[in-house]
Amino acid sequence: MEILENISVALQNGKAKEVKKLVQEAIDAGVSAQQILNEGLLSGMNIVGIRFKNNEIFVPEVLVSARAMSRGAELLKPLLAAEGVSASGKVAIGTVQGDLHDIGKNLVKMMLEGKGLEVIDLGTDVPAASFVAAVKEQGCQIICCSALLTTTMGAIGDVVKACEEAGIRDSVKIMVGGAPVTDAFCQQIGADAYTADATSAAEKAVELLAMA
Ligand code: B1M
Predict the structure, then answer these.
(1) What is the dihedral of CA 90, 69, 85, 135, to 10 degrees?
(2) C-alpha span between 181 and 176 (Å, rounded)
(3) Residue nearest to atom 70 of ligand 1 (CA)
(4) Cα–Cα distance for residue pair 115/209, rounded to 1 Å
């Protein structure tokens, strides 16, 4: 669809205002929020990632594309929420220690809120102790850890260990995600659930809360 291609290109060029305008046009034209997210914004961000990897673009360009992605996603937030099923529960989410990537984490947060869950956003570069504190002090039933770097994936294992050491492992479910994370890794570190994207993460959180 041409409008989705235009959104992807504007995002690759870091044109935040243009992305916002095109996303609004797509919404007005009746394109679903999920399709705009997947085939417009995320498809553009994938291409940015490939160019970044190939050294065709550098950190500043990636950051302006990231900002454009956020501006577009803001418009989709209420629509994605409206498509959701209502549930109740409290989730602590954060990008693990050493890792500053937050676009995926913010999308997962958006989808969790869309399901009616209360989300405590711990931000980026979050030490394991902060996840533990969110469970103990704020009563979170689920922890969602995001990691985008192969060098920071291990910090998710530290969160699992910290929960064990704090004696709260049985009272919290630990969900994991991010580009380098896999189901096998999830099992290896003793976490409860791996999901590949924001939509399935929110669905899984609702399922885990229903089982609790
Ligand atoms: Co970074 N970066 N980056 N970066 N960056 C990657 C991850 C990289 C793959 C790029 C590349 O080389 N192709 C590479 C990692 C290589 C590796 O580890 N093997 C990389 C690198 C190397 C780096 C730096 C080290 C670069 C440098 O400084 N030399 C540096 C590290 C900084 C740090 O964190 N300490 C760095 C910095 C940055 C920026 C700051 C410039 C910027 C981040 C801006 C921001 O987040 N505010 C950035 C970006 C944007 C990227 C890419 C291009 C895009 C990431 C992204 O936002 N994708 C990325 C390349 C890529 O992934 N294609 C790259 C879109 C996002 C929606 O997807 O986060 O995967 P994602 O989230 C998905 C799923 O994974 C899942 O749901 C989301 C949506 O469906 N999900 C979860 C995510 N978290 C979840 C949690 C859950 C469940 C599902 O919990 C239950």
Answers:
(1) -10
(2) 7
(3) 179
(4) 12
Q: Cα dihedral sign for 110, 113, 115, 118?
A: positive
The percentage of the chain sitting over the pLDDT mark of 70, rounded to a whole number, equals 98
Q: Which of 101, 107, 209 to mutate to test the pocket of ligand 1 (most atoms within 8 A of CB)?
A: 101
Cα separation, 196 vs 212, in Å, equals 22
173 phi, psi to nearest 5 deg: -100, 135
At residue 151, does pLDDT exceed 90?
Answer: yes
**Residue 32 vs residue 84, higher pLDDT:** 32
Spatial CA neighbour of 91 closest among 116, 115, 110, 118 = 118
Best residue for ligand 1 mutational test, from 11, 45, 52, 115 (most atoms within 8 Å of Cβ): 52
Rounded distance between C-alpha atoms, residue 196 and residue 207, angstroms? 16
Q: At what angle do helices 59-83 and 43-53 cross, to 10 degrees?
A: 160
Here the tokens at position 79 are: 């629509």
Strand order of the sheet with strand 173-177? 118-121, 90-95, 142-146, 173-177, 193-194
Cβ 120 under 6 angstroms from ligand 1: no
